[in-house]
Fold these 2 entries.
Entry 1:
Amino acid sequence: MIKLVDGFGFNEELELVIQDNTEDDSEIFEFFSDNEFLNPQYYHIRESLTVGENFDFGIRNSTGEYVSCIGDDDAVTKYLVDCVKWMKENKLEGVFPERITFLGPEAYPGCKGDLHYKSFTEEVKFVNTSEVLKDIFDKGCINTGNLPLLYRGVVSRECLDKIRVRCGTYFPGASPDIANAVSICLVIEKFVVISAPIVIGGNSKTGGGGVNFLKYHAQTDFTKLPHLPKNIKEIWCKKIPLIWSNPTIWCESVVEALNAWGRSDLIEEINFEKLYEYFVLYYFHYRKMAFELSNNKMRLLLKSCFNYSSRYFNGIIYRIKTKLSRKKYSNGRLVVSGFDDFNEVLEYLNKNDYNFMDIDHVRIKI
């Protein structure tokens, strides 16, 4: 990633801040001593931090007018600077590209280096933040929905500083990207979604703080999750199963963010029954936790049976469509295989699918 960004040549316009929280930083120091780079600003804190605290220090150590956060297995493209210039011209506080994901060869057994993306267009879409919040509340906060994620988008520092002034942190929740996204929705009324390769999310076996392997697994022993706040069990919402999993930690982070903003009224709008339905479907071994919290256990039982049947038949239909189609798709996104690393991915995008100039001529009237 360091070599990648340094090779873009944006010496004065782009700042790469590396916030390291590993116990041993000797390897990265050796890397820096063997290479000369123009962009990186490196900071290291050896003391144990939560993921949110580490990201918080990263933003505080940055100086740019606009900020984008990435993880240890993600990457940005050279179009990031073009995107920010376009944002400034159009006075936009937040821009979020359609999701692009690269699963490296080591992501899972049999992975062939897959790039997941939708074909790029010149479409520029305004999204109302109140509608985004309503949508995730209705669905029980089981996924990120259309939330404006700093994790794969670009946000003005002015917007982020409003969050820090109010909450004391840029990330007022156990899952930093979710808590920050909810906060952004409470700061701005609208944001823009574009179809452009600005940030590419990675998904290696050890990425995401070492917890990607838990995607469809749950963890009841919070001591094994040092990336979470130490008091997480004490502050955990009583309406959410007390267990670490994707949907529960996302929902918990939404609740924490709303509490930080003093918006307990919005917590009442969350459909927790939808959370229980999803939890039973994907974490069946722990289904008792959801049934104990449900206010309508018979409905939850019936919905669970229906969801299992739907999942089974939808899987059959998907496999049939995949065999009949010449192209491979996953969740509506095109899948292209055969990439060894991000450099090959960027080379492919440059040759085949995208030039930011296609969208640069678009001027938005606020």
Note: Residues 206-214 have pLDDT under 50 and may be disordered.
Entry 2:
Amino acid sequence: MQTFKIHPAIGCARIGNSEEFYLAPEQTGALPIECDAQGREITDPNGAPLRVSQFKESGNPGRIKRQAARFRIFVYDENQLDSRRELKIGDKYQFQLNTSTTGPQLVEGTVVDIAWTVHLANKKASWYAFSENDGMHGYGPDHPLRNPEVTQPDRRRQLIIDPGPRTISGNDGKASFAKNDGSAYPQSFPPEAIQPYSITTLGEIMTNEDDAQHRRLIVLGGYGRSGYQGADGNTVPVISSYANNGGWYDDVADGPVRAQIKYSYIHRYTDATGKPVRKKQFAFYDVDAPAWLLVGYPSYAPEIEDMITMDEAIYDLSVRHFAFDPAVYGTAPFDRQSNQPESAAV
């Protein structure tokens, strides 16, 4: 059986006050990727991605481009972790089909389409106060809330910015996380009168026609807008730190990214006369684990690769504390029989 996963598991978009955008880097230590207004990747004469050199609009340095996160689906063969390959429209894969009559069964299906669903929201104003300097140990029942003066449950729910989920499919889909877009979802947005900027959207999602082979998803965040509503509607709330400033709203959001694969398969059965029948049918497969989108602030410096990788850190921990390799670190005679995770030397 094959497994389907969304990559990256955590995508990073960035706010900006421009309609123009670029694609987030997809390699360690790389710069972002240039793209056009439809999210189509721009390449150099050799076919390699063209890296971003200008993070602001040309001729208008006051406009900062947004960064879009690009998601795709990869296929893994069972017990072959190095078999990863990107899913393609029109290719055949193994899917687990669940029906009310036959129960779970493995079928070979041809991918027809991908439906992407993203749900961005901003719940910071109704959440617990941030306290990173104290370490993240979870929030106890006495941990302070943001905007503590708002105590009524209905009013606290109004602190949440939530336009609802958006779903697109096909090779030219587009949807916006905008206010009053006709969605039946019970949206929640700040009052229109907040100052200095109102918040009417948290971003947008799209696919493009040139990417019909893979149907990758592109997600954009907001425009970096923020506004306040003081206790009396006029007084500007004091900004005392980088976070936990009551009375303020912003369009920085995050949320899950899900995918549903539509495929066709041949249903074989015998009719009432005993004649074998082959019939083409369609089914849907939900990719098991969702990915996540984070929307952050603008950043221009390329990623600096770590001198020590996570793999090296885990190996070091295993050797020194869990008797992983007694020949490197342990007690005489430095064999596994004399060295267990509970040994005094480790």
Note: Residues 2-122+161-296 form one domain.
